[in-house]
């Protein structure tokens, strides 16, 4: 179901003595209206169902709420309008209907000229986000190609048997691409050999997915990784950026179902995200798997908010 924006979440520190330059997101954000001018639209996907089906640690349904609270105090560094577009919430165990509804909302936002920043929820968010961007492209960008860049310790290419979950979204997307005669352009950045079985790597090969492993992302190989990402982006017209927060080391991102022992450190993740965001091709971004139950003194929430801040600044061309 759809939930209206709860603007009470957007509260925080106010520094009136500093005027406009001292404002924060909670002072700028407004509820999205039908006639709102194009802007950055935050949409939540409150879902535990994908992680539950994937035998993980549930709690991500509270992610959109806690992430908004963590983002409320971010400095308002851009003039682009900032909106809260409310939530899509999974009811009972009907994940498929919620993913379809998320897709419909994403298509509407893109068609109205907004940049959707979608906050999960488990990584089953990706199959909803994708449905939205794919429909928008069918309707308005017919000849254009889409690339999916997933920053993730996991390939998320599990078979949806018996049903889709947080571990299956990119396999489900590959199936949709096949049905619609579209190429499956998928790059996973940060995959861990300790967290993906050979079966999953074999599936990635079969599907023509590109993978940059966590161990390939070091200070001395950063430029190489940036080049590989730039090459991938060079081959597509639009990018759907999805960030599974468990790509970060467990010490900075404990607030996920499956924390990463090694992960991609934040100081290396940020320049890689810049490579993607500064391409100018990103039309949609989401943050997946944030689970506040496992956070430690808001460390994970603050890190996720910082990544949201980076995305917002780059896509608004600050
Ligand atoms: N979306 C993440 N999925 C991981 C979870 C791994 C785990 O729970 O250990 C996966 O399916 O591989
Ligand atoms: Mn993951
Ligand atoms: Mn994932």
CATH architecture: 3-Layer(aba) Sandwich
Distance between the amino and carboxyl termini: 34 Å
| Average pLDDT over all residues | 98
Got a strand count?
10
CATH domain class: Alpha Beta
Radius of gyration: 18 Å
Shape: globular
Low-confidence stretches: none
Which small-molecule species are bound to the chains here?
A: N-(iminomethyl)-L-glutamic acid, manganese (II) ion
- CATH superfamily heading: Ureohydrolase domain
Q: Which structural class best describes the helix and strand composition? A: alpha/beta
Helix residue percentage = 25-40%
What kind of sheet is the major sheet?
10 strands, mixed
Element pattern in H and E: EHEEHHEHEHEHEHEHEHEH
**CATH topology name:** Arginase, Chain A
Total domains, how many? 1
Percent strand equals 15-25%
In DSSP terms, counting alpha (H) and pi (I) runs of 4 or more, how many helices? Answer: 10
Keywords: Histidine metabolism, Hydrolase, Manganese, Metal-binding
Organism: Microbulbifer aggregans
Binding site for Mn(2+) 1: 123, 152, 156, 244
Cofactor: Mn(2+)
Overview of the structural elements:
There is one protein chain. This protein is 36% helix and 17% strand. It has helices at residues 25-28, 49-53, 63-71, 95-111, 125-140, 169-179, 198-206, 222-234, 266-277, 299-315; strands spanning 2-3, 30-31, 40-46, 82-89, 115-120, 146-151, 186-191, 210-213, 238-244, 282-288. The chain contains ten helices and ten strands. Strands 1, 2, 3, 4, 5, 6, 7, 8, 9 and 10 form a ten-stranded mixed sheet that branches. The relative contact order is 0.16. It has 318 residues and is of the alpha/beta class. The protein has a single domain (2-315), classed as 3-Layer(aba) Sandwich (Arginase, Chain A). The chain binds N-(iminomethyl)-L-glutamic acid and manganese (II) ion (2 copies).
């Amino acid at each position: 179901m759809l939930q209206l924006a709860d603007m009470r979440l957007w509260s925080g520190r106010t520094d009136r003595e500093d005027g406009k330059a001292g404002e924060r997101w909670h002072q700028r954000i407004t509820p999205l209206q039908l006639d709102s001018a194009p802007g950055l639209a935050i949409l939540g996907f409150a879902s535990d169902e994908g992680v539950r089906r994937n035998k993980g640690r549930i709690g991500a349904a509270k992610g959109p709420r806690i992430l908004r609270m963590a983002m409320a105090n971010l400095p308002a560094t851009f003039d682009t309008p900032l909106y809260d577009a409310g939530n899509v919430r999974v009811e009972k165990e009907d994940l498929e209907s919620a993913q379809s509804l998320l897709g419909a909302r994403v298509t509407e936002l893109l068609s109205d000229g907004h940049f959707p920043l979608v906050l999960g929820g488990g990584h089953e968010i990706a199959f909803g986000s994708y449905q939205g961007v794919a429909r928008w492209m069918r309707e308005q960008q017919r000849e254009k190609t889409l690339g999916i860049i997933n920053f993730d310790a996991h390939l998320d290419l599990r078979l949806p048997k018996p049903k889709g979950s947080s571990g299956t979204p990119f396999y489900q997307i590959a199936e949709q691409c096949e049905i619609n005669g579209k190429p499956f352009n998928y790059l996973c950045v940060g995959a861990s050999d300790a967290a993906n079985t050979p079966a999953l790597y074999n599936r990635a090969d079969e599907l023509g997915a590109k993978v940059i492993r966590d161990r390939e992302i070091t200070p001395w190989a950063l430029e190489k990784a940036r080049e590989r990402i730039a090459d991938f982006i060079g081959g597509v017209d639009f990018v759907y950026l999805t960030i599974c927060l468990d790509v970060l080391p467990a010490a900075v991102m404990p607030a996920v179902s499956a924390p990463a022992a090694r992960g991609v450190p934040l100081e290396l993740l940020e320049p890689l995200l810049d490579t993607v965001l500064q391409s100018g091709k990103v039309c949609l971004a989401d943050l997946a798997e944030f689970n506040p139950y496992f956070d430690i003194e808001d460390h994970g929430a603050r890190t996720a908010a910082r990544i949201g801040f980076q995305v917002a600044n780059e896509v608004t061309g600050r």
